[in-house]
Amino acid sequence: MAKQVVVKIDYLIKKYEVGSLRKFADKCDIRHAALSELNNGKRRNINFGHIERIAETFGIDDINEIIELVDIDDYKA
């Protein structure tokens, strides 16, 4: 079964009560468009600098809180 890496942006927005994707982008100092494309599954390349900034911004020590490897058949963007 094919796998896909998913950045759990919606989960993080809810968990850290950021409110919106735009506020999340501002807080992490990442372009809104880049996060929107990741969130919608339209961007296939993941910038590790973005993952690091998200982790630093919210004090995340476990990368599994930010990204997840899922079966493509089970994931709905």
Provide a descriptive summary of the structure in words.
By secondary structure, this protein is of the alpha+beta class. Helix content is 44%, strand content 13%. It contains four helices and two strands, in the order βααααβ. It has helices spanning 9-15, 21-28, 32-39, 48-58; strands spanning 3-7, 67-71. Strands 1-2 form a two-stranded antiparallel sheet. The longest helix is centred in the last third of the chain and has 11 residues, at 48-58. 9% of the residues are buried.
List keywords for this structure.
alpha+beta; globular; 77 residues; two-stranded antiparallel ribbon; single chain; 13% strand
Number of strands: 2
Shape annotation = globular
Indicate the low-confidence ranges by residue numbers.
none
Number of helices: 4
Main-sheet strand order equals: 1-2
For the sheet with most strands, the description reads:
2 strands, antiparallel
**Strand fraction band?**
5-15%
Radius of gyration: 12 Å
The H-and-E topology, N to C, reads as: EHHHHE
Compute the average pLDDT.
90
The percent of residues in helical segments reads 40-55%
Q: Termini distance?
A: 17 Å
Structural class, by secondary structure, is: alpha+beta
